[in-house]
């Protein structure tokens, strides 16, 4: 069955906490997964000299196939992971050189899955603002977020995702 939801994972390690949590989410909810580590793309370039790297085919494939994009990232320095930030920066290509693809994001849905060694109630800063504001800018509907404590493996059993 083709799912119209995809989890886009961006972590500095491929077999770490984020991947483990997302494997559990994906199997419980039958959601496809794209791991950014499987793709080669570089940080945003105003000259677009990297226009032939993996970013454009990757995002176009995601836009064509899915209506809900769930971004999964560990918390690194109170922010999304570096690879996820680079992926987000490349959305500027969809605003500058591939505008028709940027417009196709309008009306799609965005959600976020984060993890760290804290409980969600202990996050005393708004980690999710870049996602909320980016969704708003891109015309996407922000559904919400779910935070996992990577030290509590039981959290990945019987997961409830309020945003789905
Ligand atoms: C570079 C780096 C920065 C981190 N910064 C934070 C942080 O600001 N707050 C926090 O709670 N945990 C922080 N952590 C811990 C990670 O969020 C946590 O270990 C997470 O589960 C790692 O997921 P991963 O295995 O997919 O990398 C950091 C870890 C790394 C490697």
TrEMBL record:
<dbReference type="InterPro" id="IPR029039">
    <property type="entry name" value="Flavoprotein-like_sf"/>
</dbReference>
<keyword id="KW-0285">Flavoprotein</keyword>
<dbReference type="GO" id="GO:0016491">
    <property type="term" value="F:oxidoreductase activity"/>
</dbReference>
<dbReference type="Pfam" id="PF03358">
    <property type="entry name" value="FMN_red"/>
</dbReference>
<dbReference type="InterPro" id="IPR051796">
    <property type="entry name" value="ISF_SsuE-like"/>
</dbReference>
<dbReference type="InterPro" id="IPR008254">
    <property type="entry name" value="Flavodoxin/NO_synth"/>
</dbReference>
<dbReference type="GO" id="GO:0010181">
    <property type="term" value="F:FMN binding"/>
</dbReference>
<dbReference type="InterPro" id="IPR005025">
    <property type="entry name" value="FMN_Rdtase-like_dom"/>
</dbReference>
<feature type="domain" description="Flavodoxin-like">
    <location>
        <begin position="7"/>
        <end position="164"/>
    </location>
</feature>
<protein>
    <submittedName>
        <fullName>NADPH-dependent oxidoreductase</fullName>
    </submittedName>
</protein>
<keyword id="KW-0288">FMN</keyword>
